[in-house]
Amino acid sequence: xxxxxxxxxxxxxxxxxxxxxxxxxxxxxxxxxxxxxxxxxxxxxxxxxxxxxxxxxxxxxxxxxxxxxxxxxxxxxxxxxxxxxxxxxxxxxxxxxxxxxxxxxxxxxxxxxxxxxxxxxxxxxxxxxxxxxxxxxxxxxxxxxxxxxxxxxxxxxxxxxxxxxxxxxxxxxxxxxxxxxxxxxxxxxxxxxxxxxxxxxxxxxxxxxxxxxxxxxxxxxxxxxxxxxxxxxxxxxxxxxxxxxxxxxxxxxxxxxxxxxxxxxxxxxxxxxxxxxxxxxxxxxxxxxxxxxxxxxxxxxxxxxxxxxxxxxxxxxxxxxxxxxxxxxxxxxxxxxxxxxxxxxxxxxxxxxxxxxxxxxxxxxxxxxxxxxxxxxxxxxxxxxxxxxxxxxxxxxxxxxxxxxxxxxxxxxxxxxxxxxxxxxxxxxxxxxxxxxxxxxxxxxxxxxxxxxxxxxxxxxxxxxxxxxxxxxxxxxxxxxxxxxxxxxxxxxxxxxxxxxxxxxxxxxxxxxxxxxxxxxxxxxxxxxxxxxxxxxxxxxxxxxxxxxxxx
Length: 552
Known about the structure:
This protein is of the alpha+beta class.
């Protein structure tokens, strides 16, 4: 862990969260820290947090019943609270996962919720986490059903019809006829991770006194209200880059927008090239995390040396530049139910070619991402629906519409395009969000064919719980038309004193001869050879709204 963190810092790669996996535990027991394998971890976590790096660690649902009496509080307290999933005869069902034989909590019971939240709050005294990652919560169990008794031969465990599974319903999980408070496991299996997510978030928030975070492997409709989701144990194979885009698009439609796959892959060793391309793609997952399996070769970007590390840094710096746009998209998801990541057909439903595109994706309506997904390729084919598109990096107007284009894609480049008609808020990047939140803002104003564009910016304190419900946030809406951009404050429930716009990138305006800021002439602007107009040396306070106009 320390070596990966050190390499990441040495290459200046943005780093917001360090994760602890199951190997930090004492013999894979929940709510423990191994003093042998990770001596001094609590102190190291405090050191990371001092640098602005947060820490999230893992919990599994399976609880060992075989520790000496009185020595393992999660089990003893679980007995007191009567939390276990039970066989038809009333005894706890027994599975097997990392600690060996395990009992499984019934998260549909209120007593289990209280037990779990109590342990989560006490765990905060052991290690200063910022969020929790809940794994193995399908629930997963090695073997077939109950490892002591197997599954009874009945029409619940052996129904007349089976879906397309390998053998039987209890493979690698519990017997379908075990009981939970909200029903037989046969009827509630898919809700197990869902039922664990809410009490986990509630416990984290009580422990931290602020928003916190939860990451879950198992999910169901509605879990996005409480948790992020990663797409499970994948492989370090080129096909898995493509699959991750499909999964991310699907989960946005499931109402779980904070999602991504294990960057560079979980199983098998990653090569430098696949990791470099995956880090570029992963910079545009909404949930962006490099995660590796125990026993594999290291795969943090710094491990591979300067080429991979530098490409990773540059892609992540773009992500951090665009965080205000991404955060605003999450606000719109919260208040309107819109997707954050979306397929091209979502924005262009009548475009039959767009219906088949799953190797590109959009952030909101305004940013098109076209990654390289194949080994050895230095060009990538991108499809551009019927709209005006601008190269994110150069500001150049792309002339192609409703056609596929071969784009240059050297190893250090991921292709990004801004859609005409959209105003994208930006911010000067830093090595973590704690620092970048302090920086000045910018706007990318990408004009459509009629010279119009719209957008918005949402800001809150980043930590408070439910700031939308409490109205403790700031929102400003942007609109452009007739060579004039206006920023109008829509809600001012959060103090944005000192926050200001310092740059504007104007795309598609042509040659500009005069610029006025709030009706005062502004001299600091240039027109690039690509046609982009850069307006700089600004200090426009967000809280006051503004008006920018230009002449040609």
